[in-house]
Amino acid sequence: STMEETDREAVATAVQRVAGMLQRPDQLDKVEQYRRREARKKASVEARLKVQSLINLSVRGYQVMSRTLNLTGNEELRKNHLRITFREHLLTIFYYFKIISCKLFQNNYYSSSPACFLVLLLSFPEIVRETQDLIERGELLQAHRKLMDLECSRDNLMYEQYRMDSKNTHDMNLIHTYFGDMQKLSEELAKQLWMVVQRSLVTVRRDPTLLVSVVRIIEREEKIDRRMLDRKKQTGFIPPGRPKKWKEKMFNILERTVSIRIEGTQADTRESDKMWLVRHLEIIRKYVLDDLLVAKTLLDQCFPPHYDIFNKLLNMYHQALSTRMQELAAEDLEANEIVSLLTWVLNTYKSTEMMGNSELSPEVDVNSLNPLISQNVVDQLLSKYMSTLTSNIIGWLRKALETDKKDWIKETEPEADQDGYYQTTLPAIVFQMFEQNLQVAAQINEDLKTKVLLLCLQQMTSFLTRYKDEAQLYKEEHLKNRQYPQCYVQYMIAVINNCQTLKESISSLKRKYLKIEMEDTLSSSHTSMDATLDIIAKEGCSSLLDEVFMDLEPHLNELMTKKWLMGSNAVGTICVTVEDYFNDFAKIKKPYKKTMTVEAHRRVVVEYIRAIMLKRISFKNAEERKEGAERMIKEAEQFRFLFKKLAAGSGEDTEGLCDIIEAIAEVIKLTDPSLLYLEVSMLVSKYPDIRDDHIAALLTVRGDASRDMKQTIIETLDKGSSQPNPNYVPIFKEITVPTLTVPKLLK
After folding, report:
1. Which of 187, 199, 433, 485 is the residue whose CA sits 20 to 30 A from 575?
2. Where are its TM segments located (predicted)?
3. How far is residue 339's CA from residue 452's CA, in Å, rounded to a whole number?
């Protein structure tokens, strides 16, 4: 073939040429010199071949363009356009070539021949295309190597131009224009680098080599930047686009990526999810911790130590979080949202769940981290929280009271606790609400917890006053129509029990949430709350006893009448009625239940003695007196038995009160009038609050004492020699004696 013939011919010519060179022995010493000369010739021929092939390539390009344009109309116009385009392309190349050959090579700047430089000029578009392909294939290191070579050639060319004629902007612009595509290449490569940097925390797990390549490229560019800046100091020349500052750009991109990462975690709004902030903060916590752990364990190894990449990232995250938290703090947050935010900022951020995680130690020192939001902003949020909480608590307490009042008029009995005591839901609702808010405040800090406790107790004080007023209104409404509400007694018992529960709850709340040193500041308000609760309970007990005695009234009116003397069962009915009521009263908690029993016992005895003092009967003879007195003693025993039964286990002394009835019965029973003075004296010494009108009434009921005898006995009594029982509570002072009927009975 033609190819083989050419090869054979070339070999023969070469052999002949070498034989001609080495005719004499001394020519052997010049072999190395010959070899170098031949190498230079070879390089020159290869360069000419390369130029020829590039010119051929340009011609072929011209032919392709020509064929493409042949498909459209106006032949002459097309030919002209192509001729001009092609001529312009070749002339541009040869213009640069002229600069090189005339200027650069005169100054021995390039060691290679002008032809080599012409090769570079001609092959520039092809190298650009290759570099573009490498970028698209993700082979960034090779792409950058080619880009550096191109930039180096352009920069040196421009530098020479600058050195020879710094004012010749026309030539400088020509060079800049010719290498214009290179700037786009640089931007395209940078775009790829920044994409890798943006995803560095993902890339470092999947393809760390890619990240290392990016860092190497940035480092190369930093070196070139430094070199160019040094040259600028010396010569005043710096190529276009320098310094690139890619390291600085990389950190800016990282910073922006971190900000977007933090902001992008808010998936919900308050409208779509009440827990939006809790979720947002939890996602931030998780992302930041994960990212920093990856940065510490993997990312750190991909960067040179002087980048201090982990600490830089840590600062970026801290700054982005600080910005985000300030934005959130400026929103119109609800009370629970303020708590979520402050808990996260003041506690979660530095806890082991986040920055205090042991795997981040020792690089992250939580004590050296600045606060995410200033103390001023924290104080503003706390102040807003306290005012919102105050109005919330007032609202909750008002609602709780309204709910309780609705319960009071139900037709079903109230719930009983595990011990069978009636109650309503009010104490549980109120203290559950207090507890929740105190637990929430405790998450933030001790100081807020104390403030919230003081707020709760302060609101409780005013709430109890309203509770007292409502219980009083409940009683008054009931008295207008005693059939309504149907379960009045049971709900009044529940109100009394609530007082005891509230007392216990207040004490428990203080024990749990108040520091001992703060006790004194609250002791007065605590005492006043207890006093208010005691008043509510006492008034409640009193209103229940009023119920009992309203039912007893017709039977009490029968006492000490003719009907009573003839054998009425009034006291039996009284005892049954009282016992029936006390079946319900058994649902009253101690100590109020004991108070009820004592008070009921006392009131029954007072009413019985009042019946005697009303002088509804005046015994006609000793027989009637004996019968009446024995009946009184028997009924006193009935009362004693009843109240002993009701007070079982309460340790109450039930004896003393019924003794008064018996002592009065003894005065009535006495058969010897001469001993009457002595008997009355004994009575007065035992019960020193007996007044003269009581003695007069008693003697009237007895029926056999003349006016003078009464006068004598009353005047002779020595009031000073009384020896009452130390436990005796005056009872006669409550009993008034009707005066209008006295003259009638004395006749």
Report:
1. 485
2. none
3. 12
d(CA 260, CA 323): 12
304 cis-preceded (ω within 30 degrees of 0): no
Two structure tokens written together for 270: 């308050």
In terms of domains, do 416 and 447 share one? yes
Of the candidates 513, 377, 519, the one whose C-alpha atom is nearest the C-alpha of residue 452 is 513
CB under 8 Å to 458, separation ≥6 — which residues?
525
**Single-letter code of the amino acid located at 127:** I
Contact 119, 148 (CB under 8 A): no
Return the structure tokens found at 259. 């900000």
Tokens (6 digits) for 29: 């010493």
Per the domain annotation, does 74 fall within a domain? no
- What are the φ and ψ backbone dihedral angles of 652, each rounded to 5 degrees? -85, 140
Cα angle vertex 538, ends 573, 644, to 5°?
40
Query: Do 197 and 265 belong together in one domain?
Result: no
What's the whole-number mean pLDDT along residues 35-50? 67
Work out the percent of the chain whose per-residue pLDDT is above 90.
Answer: 62
Residues 150 and 2 in one domain: no
Closest by alpha carbon to 600, among 620, 586, 612?
586
* Residue 747: inside a domain: no
Burial 145-161 (b: 16+ CB within 10 A, else e): ebbeebbebbbebbbbb
Determine the Cα–Cα distance for residues 460 and 434; give it in Å rounded to an integer: 10
Domain end (from 541, 568, 588): 541
CATH number of the domain residue 694 falls in: 1.10.357.70
Across 501-513, average pLDDT: 92
d(CA 615, CA 234): 133
**Helix %, strand %, coil % of the chain (to 5):** 80, 0, 20
Enclosing domain of residue 627? 559-734
In degrees, to the nearest 5, what angle opens at C-alpha 7 toward C-alphas 5 and 11?
Answer: 120
What's the length of the chain?
747
Which run of H or E residues covers position 138? none
Residues 414 and 453 in one domain: yes
**Tokens standing for 111?**
């060691």
Q: Read off the tokens for 22.
A: 């080495």
| Residue 159 one-letter amino acid | Y
Q: C-alpha angle 375/378/381, rounded to 5°?
A: 155
| Structure token pair of residue 442 | 């405790």
Number of domains in the chain: 5
Residue 573: closest CA among 592, 584, 590, 557: 557
Distance CA 317, CA 38 (A): 65
Q: Does one domain contain both 362 and 492?
A: no
- Pull the structure tokens for residue 682: 């004994």
- Label residue 313 exposed, middle or buried (CB < 10 Å: 0-12, 13-18, 19+): buried
Q: How far apart are CA 500 and CA 493, in angstroms?
A: 11
For residue 422, give the 3-state DSSP assignment: strand
**Residue of 567, 570, 559, 677 whose CA lies nearest to 610:** 559
Asked whether residue 459 carries a pLDDT value surpassing 90, the answer given is yes
The token pair that represents 730 in the structure block: 């005056």
605-657 per-position pLDDT tens digit:
999 999 999 999 999 999 999 999 999 999 999 999 999 999 876 656 656 88
| Burial class of residue 23, CB neighbours in 10 A (0-12, 13-18, 19+) | exposed
> Across all residues in the chain, what is the average pLDDT?
86
**Is residue 546 classed exposed, middle or buried when 0-12, 13-18 and 19+ CB atoms within 10 A define those classes?**
middle
- Distances in Å between the Cα of 484 and the Cα atoms of 126, 468, 480, 487 are 104, 20, 9, 8
Q: Give the C-alpha separation, 413 to 489, whole Å.
A: 9
What residues contact residue 741 under an 8 Å CB cut-off, 6+ apart? 615
Please state, in angstroms and rounded to a whole number, the distance separating the CA atoms of residues 551 and 525.
39
